[in-house]
Amino acid sequence: MTTLIISLKFLKKLFFFAGDKDVEVCGVLIGKKIDKKKFKITNIVYDDNPIDPTSFGVTRNTENVYIYVKEIVENSYEDVDYIGEWHSHLFGKCDFSSLDVESIRYIMEDQDYQKPNYLILLIIKFPSQSSAFLFEKKQKFITEMVLKIED
Ligand SMILES: [Zn+2]
Predict the structure, then answer these.
(1) 3-state DSSP call for residue 3?
(2) Which CATH number fits the domain that encloses residue 93?
(3) pLDDT tens for each residue of 4-63
(4) How far is the CA of 132 from the centre of ligand 1 (A)?
(5) What is the tally of structural domains in the chain?
(6) Ligand 1 centroid distance, CA of 80 (Å)
């Protein structure tokens, strides 16, 4: 069982961002790997200026979120970093699409992101559904994560 720890505060924040909007919303996850099967989100970044948000997709604005990410990572007393992506779905299942997989794999090969060994994808569906997946460099398969909500 691979676990993703998230605070209730952050989860509520994500659902707040998604709200009852008619377009997808997105952002990035800051956190750390605790051990092989345990990951923790320590910050949520909301992309307040995404590219082409529609009800079927959204492209995250890297330049916009980068400033927020840098500030959080530099000012954190913990050893945290960019660990993944989050976005909302309006229709269908609270599950990754083929485009989602493509985007994650693309980032993992991107030199600008220093080719991370793993990335987490968190998908939320307003008002209360959420799911998380772990993508690893050396694994072809995608691991579904168990979300552990903490106070
Ligand atoms: Zn998606």
Answers:
(1) strand
(2) 3.40.140.10
(3) 999 999 999 999 999 989 999 999 999 999 999 999 999 999 999 999 999 999 998 988
(4) 11
(5) 1
(6) 25
